[in-house]
């Protein structure tokens, strides 16, 4: 090579070859000889002065820290018996970090030379730089088993909880990990078949009572058939991946992109930045950057990783664990945008005007380095005037411009009028034993809304770009409510004394007007719930039917490829559309686009059901010590067999069986969603305030049973309903007419008083 390499080529070489970073290694790689070495030395010094490189002795290295999930090589124990490890991908300056392994009793044995995937925690002020907790040994992937431990004279057996599975495992003596008879345990296969022809296993963790809270998410995983064990070939493929370099990418490492996520986020797949737009034609406008982890670089079409990701469809989240779509090596490491670590991304640069309207965008395949990993609470506190020391340094250059851009996007949102449902999300707090300590409702901060608006806009950009380039993709589709559900909603609205316009094309703006009428009234939560129930479920489709709820014509999921396969397909579409490489959409991807849409729509519903079942079980376990307690709530559902009461404190739904409503027959009216007493004419409907006494809580099924004590301040009669024979309808009709006459008289009295 006769010419001096570019700055990008030098940085790419150092990134791709961390063990060959001496000046002579770089010179040899680019064929630089003689006097040209002086120019190379000058170039390296410039890169060092600008902070791109740091020099240690005679080598140049990218000044990075270790990511939270790293591959380590286990070293021999020291004289004190402590186990240490060497990071295999250290590119930083200074001495190689010292990593102390903290083995748990249930961890697999580790010896010198073993390669492990570990979760790292920085330990400033200690003699070592990091502590490591084993995630798994690389190259080994023992089968995981969930079952009931049965004690024997020597060791025991594990009986699986999976339906239809009668295979058992022998637990040799010494491999019980202290498990007691009847406990739910998680184990791994540890050896060949024993003398009885059964495979051997060793207990890894004891989960205690199968009905206890800590066990419920595992039970849901198995009951709903969610794959939670990565095949050997998938892990081997993930373990063989190396960090992406700069070649073929735009260098965005100097942009102060940051991630803003929940404080307990397990992965970080999106980063954001906003800057004032200095263009004379866009006064008061903003430039937005949204950078998303380039998962497509690592998960290529037809690979083992690709097949497994498509099979899972998405990650599934529980209060105590996550079942990821991708192995830890990718989801927690190479594809996670950790602070201070170079990571491959697909980024979109968006220009908006002062009113939040998009006036242009372009996509880049890039390399970024997160300036900070912040929580929603930390970012919000900084904006509210209480920044942490770290946030204070980012307040003016990063956070305030983000909030300024969000202010513009809010204006556009108000004009667009997406559906503005106000349904608080529950947060289940667990202690170390997996027991529920509290049920609270998550705060909705401006920081949450900011990220949502940025992500929605990026998703719109992805859909518009692929449509313009005639590139097939998976749309996120949300169709408008069907007429039957709308009629049911109108009945609820009418019964609440509110109005929903009829005889015109329904728009989200009409529903928002309804929600605004209900806001702050006794009917607020009821109308929000009824509106939600009138909606169809969103799904994926290769055809574009628009997104009713967001009031958008073109919409596709692009921003979460670590946890959603749909987004990975969209990323591949962008790669193909821009000609960025050979890892775009394959012929097979295109042929089965419809099939993939149905597959991942189904896996999404499966995860939602498993998550809901788990939440119900946790709630039932939490409420199990409150039997007999009277709790305030509101009627949230009516059925032929009883009513559902949403309890104020936890948001849990308790069933009040119809037999407990009193000594009369209740007629069910599906159209008006009411129950009416045949003797008293009492009408029970949605939204009524009640006091309910908790009668039963079943953690295994997640069911709560209650009885009504008061309804709208009136005491309910005690005793079971009369059920020997169904009374004639005329009684109900007479009672209904009497109530109507009574209501008219009351109305006249009120009118005269006015």
Automatic annotation (TrEMBL):
Q: Where is the composition biased (Basic residues)?
A: 720-754
Top-level lineage group: Bacteria
What Pfam families is this protein classified in?
Answer: CSD2, RNB, S1
Which Gene Ontology molecular-function terms are recorded? exoribonuclease II activity; RNA binding
Q: What is its EC number?
A: 3.1.13.1
GO cellular-component term (any): cytosol
Query: Tell me, what does this protein do in biology?
Result: 3'-5' exoribonuclease that releases 5'-nucleoside monophosphates and is involved in maturation of structured RNAs.
What the record says about family reads: Belongs to the RNR ribonuclease family. RNase R subfamily.
Q: Which NCBIfam families is this protein grouped with?
A: 3_prime_RNase (TIGR00358), RNase_R (TIGR02063)
Query: What protein name is recorded for this chain?
Result: Ribonuclease R
């Amino acid at each position: 090579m006769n010419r001096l390499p570019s700055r990008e080529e030098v940085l790419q070489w150092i990134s791709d070859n961390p063990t060959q970073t001496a000046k002579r290694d770089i010179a040899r790689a680019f064929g630089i000889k003689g006097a040209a070495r002086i120019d190379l030395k000058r170039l390296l010094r410039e890169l060092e002065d600008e902070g791109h490189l740091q020099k240690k002795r005679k080598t140049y290295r990218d000044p990075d820290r270790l990511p939270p999930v790293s591959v380590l090589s286990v070293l021999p124990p020291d004289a004190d018996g402590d186990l240490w490890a060497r990071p295999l991908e250290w590119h930083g300056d200074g001495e190689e970090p010292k990593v102390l392994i903290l083995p748990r009793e249930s961890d697999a044995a580790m010896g010198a030379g073993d390669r492990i995937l570990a979760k790292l925690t920085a330990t400033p002020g200690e003699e070592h730089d990091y502590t490591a907790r084993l995630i798994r040994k690389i190259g080994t992937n023992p089968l995981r088993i969930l079952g009931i431990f049965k004690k024997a004279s020597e060791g025991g057996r594990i009986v699986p909880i999976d339906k239809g599975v009668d295979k058992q495992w022998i637990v040799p003596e010494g491999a019980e990990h202290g498990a007691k008879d009847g406990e739910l345990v998680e184990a791994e296969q540890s050896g060949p078949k024993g003398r009885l022809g059964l495979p051997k296993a060793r207990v890894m963790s004891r989960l205690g009572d199968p009905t206890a809270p800590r066990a419920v998410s595992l039970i849901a995983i198995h009951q709903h058939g969610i794959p939670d064990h990565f095949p050997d070939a998938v892990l081997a493929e993930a373990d063989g991946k190396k960090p992406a370099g700069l070649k073929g990418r735009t260098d965005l490492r100097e942009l102060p992109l940051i991630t803003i996520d929940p404080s307990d986020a397990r992965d970080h797949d999106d980063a954001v930045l906003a800057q004032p737009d200095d263009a004379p034609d866009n006064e008061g406008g903003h430039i937005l950057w949204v950078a998303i982890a380039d998962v497509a670089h690592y998960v290529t079409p037809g690979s083992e990783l690709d097949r497994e990701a498509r099979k899972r469809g998405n990650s599934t989240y529980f209060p105590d664990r996550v079942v990821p779509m991708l192995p830890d090596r990718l989801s927690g490491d190479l594809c996670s945008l950790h602070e201070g670590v170079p990571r491959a991304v697909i980024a979109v640069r968006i220009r908006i005007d002062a009113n939040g309207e998009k006036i242009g965008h372009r996509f880049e395949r890039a390399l970024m380095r997160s300036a900070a990993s912040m929580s929603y609470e930390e970012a919000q506190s900084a904006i509210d005037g209480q920044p942490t020391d770290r946030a204070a340094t980012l307040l003016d250059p990063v956070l305030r411009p983000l909030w300024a851009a969000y202010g513009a996007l809010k204006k556009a949102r108000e004009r667009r009028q997406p559906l503005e449902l106000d349904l608080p999300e529950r947060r289940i707090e667990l202690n170390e034993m997996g027991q529920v300590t509290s049920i609270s409702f998550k705060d909705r901060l401006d920081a949450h809304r900011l990220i949502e608006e940025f992500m929605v806009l990026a998703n719109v950009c992805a859909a518009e770009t692929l449509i313009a380039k005639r590139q097939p993709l998976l749309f996120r589709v949300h169709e408008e409510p069907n007429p039957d559900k709308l009629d049911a909603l109108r009945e609820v609205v009418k019964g609440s004394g509110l109005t929903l316009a009829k005889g015109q094309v329904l728009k989200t703006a009409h529903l928002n007007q309804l929600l605004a009428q209900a806001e702050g009234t006794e009917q607020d939560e009821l109308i929000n719930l009824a509106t939600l129930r009138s909606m169809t479920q969103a799904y994926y489709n290769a055809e574009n039917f628009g997104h009713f709820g967001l009031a958008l014509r073109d919409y596709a999921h692009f921003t979460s490829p670590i946890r959603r396969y749909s987004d990975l397909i969209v990323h591949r579409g962008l790669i193909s559309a821009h000609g960025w490489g050979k890892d775009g959409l394959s012929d097979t991807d295109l042929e089965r686009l419809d099939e993939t849409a149905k597959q991942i729509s189904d896996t999404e519903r499966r995860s939602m059901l498993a998550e809901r079942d788990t939440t119900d079980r946790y709630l039932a376990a939490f409420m199990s010590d409150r039997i007999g307690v009277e709790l305030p709530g509101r009627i949230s559902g009516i059925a032929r067999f009883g009513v559902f009461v949403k309890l104020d404190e936890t948001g849990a739904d308790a069933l009040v069986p119809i037999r407990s409503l009193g000594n009369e027959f209740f007629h069910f009216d599906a159209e008006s969603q009411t129950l009416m007493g045949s003797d008293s004419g009492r009408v029970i409907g949605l939204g009524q305030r009640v006091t309910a006494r908790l009668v039963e809580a079943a953690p295994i099924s997640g069911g709560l049973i209650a009885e009504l004590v008061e309804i709208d301040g009136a005491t309910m009669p005690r005793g079971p309903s009369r059920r020997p024979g169904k009374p004639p309808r005329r009684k109900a009709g007479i009672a209904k007419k009497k109530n109507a006459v009574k209501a008219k008289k009351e109305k006249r009295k009120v009118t005269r008083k006015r």
